[in-house]
């Protein structure tokens, strides 16, 4: 039942907004499920969206590593937004409102 509740509140990674912190809930389709760990994305991971382009979603993992996911594949990764106030800072820091920081 808990899985079903999480899936109902989830949406596709392709829909994430810049600055949003999210948790990966599930990866749909076995082929994509096998690819995502190679990219560094697994169910239960927490990520922050750093940039969206027409082709890909650029994310930062909790360990500071940057991950680029093609938007086609991102459509099959189910996510949920994390309460921003309870989420620990991600290594590499947040982007400053005036522009990107170099890491």
What does this structure look like?
This protein is 20% helix and 31% strand. By secondary structure, it is of the alpha+beta class. It has a single domain (2-84), classed as SH3 type barrels, CATH 2.30.30.90. The chain has a six-stranded antiparallel β-sheet with strand order 1-6-2-3-4-5. Strand 4 (56-61) and strand 5 form a beta hairpin. It is globular.
List keywords for this structure.
single chain; 103 residues; alpha+beta; SH3 type barrels; six-stranded antiparallel β-sheet; 6 strands; 20% helix; disordered C terminus
Pick out the low-confidence regions: 94-103
- Secondary-structure element order, N to C: HEEHEEEHE
What is the rounded Rg? 13 Å
CATH level 4 superfamily: Ferrous iron transport protein A (FeoA)
Mean pLDDT: 80
Question: What's the CATH topology label?
Answer: SH3 type barrels
Q: Please work out how many helical segments DSSP would assign.
A: 3
Report how far the terminal alpha carbons are from each other: 41 Å
Supply the CATH class.
Mainly Beta
| Beta-strand share of residues | 25-35%
Structural class: alpha+beta
Output the strand order for the largest sheet. 1-6-2-3-4-5
